[in-house]
Write a structure and sequence with these properties.
mainly alpha, Tetracycline Repressor, domain 2
């Protein structure tokens, strides 16, 4: 059971679940049953995406993450494939209970997450915009329960996308050794770590510059701006570690993202 939980990556799934709650609440949608179903759908589809990523990354993980379930021998690669398919199917089946727009987004994300792991991530330099999209789209998913997407939901999803893209590139710096062996074409491998750090800062700063907009346009209350400022400070603080400790930098960014997404929930209540 612990191997299955590790395979699904709880912190990534938790951020997706929080995104669903934020998207629905910011949209003024409080149907408990549909929100719970949405959370379960994201749990299964995001978990499946993380599992299939491990399935295709098993050679790279031997170097970068030897304690992951497959390289550590805790679970076989074949079983990971079966688990991924099962999780995808259950998630899509449950999504049929929600709006047609939610169902369409679930189908699209299932396809794109599998394609990313199987093809895109090893062949395209900016392939990490896909996991950034997948994370940000959980907010859209929650908003689509109303069958419409408001400006607050778009703002939250956009900030999450830019911030997470920066974090993904920071993770590429952390994983360079294994990625080179696996033939990946990431920004730090192709252009060097210095260029990668500049790109990271550009994406994160764009996200930070967007944070005041929901308050300026009176989409969210004053509590939002207080909470999101904490997020902004943490992102800027993470820059200190990009050169000497990129692993720490991306972990700080992940915490900042949780606070940033949570700030939208605070601002909507």
């Amino acid at each position: 059971m612990n191997s299955l939980v590790q395979l699904m990556r709880p912190s990534v799934v938790a951020l997706g679940i929080l995104g669903v709650i934020v998207g629905s609440f910011v949209s003024g949608y409080f149907d408990t049953f549909e929100i719970i179903v949405s959370i379960i759908v994201v749990l299964f589809i995001a978990g499946a995406g993380n599992a299939i990523n491990d399935y295709y990354d098993y050679e790279i993980d031997k170097t970068n993450k030897p304690n992951r379930p497959i390289p550590s021998g805790k679970i076989s690669r074949k079983n990971v494939l079966y688990i991924s398919i099962l999780l995808y199917l259950v998630g899509i089946s449950l999504c049929s209970m929600l709006s047609i727009y939610c169902f369409g987004l679930a189908i699209f994300n299932t396809f794109i997450s599998w394609l990313y792991s199987a093809r895109i991530k090893t062949k395209y330099t900016f392939g990490n915009i896909i996991p950034s999209w997948l994370g940000a789209s959980s907010i859209l998913f929650g908003g689509l329960l109303t069958e419409t997407v408001g400006l607050s939901v778009i703002a939250a999803a956009s900030m999450a996308f830019f911030a997470n893209t920066g974090r993904e590139i920071a993770k590429d710096i952390e994983d360079m050794q294994g990625d080179e062996k696996g033939g990946k074409k990431t920004v730090p491998i192709l252009f060097g770590e210095d260029v990668a750090r500049v790109v990271i800062k550009i994406f994160v700063i764009v996200a930070i510059l967007m944070t005041p907009l929901p308050f300026i346009f009176e989409l969210l209350n004053s509590y939002y701006i207080i909470a999101v400022l904490i997020c902004d400070v943490m992102f800027i603080y993470s820059f200190r570690f990009l050169k000497k400790n990129p692993a720490k930098a991306q972990k700080i960014m992940k915490i900042a993202m949780f606070i940033g997404v949570l700030s939208f929930l605070i601002g909507a209540l």
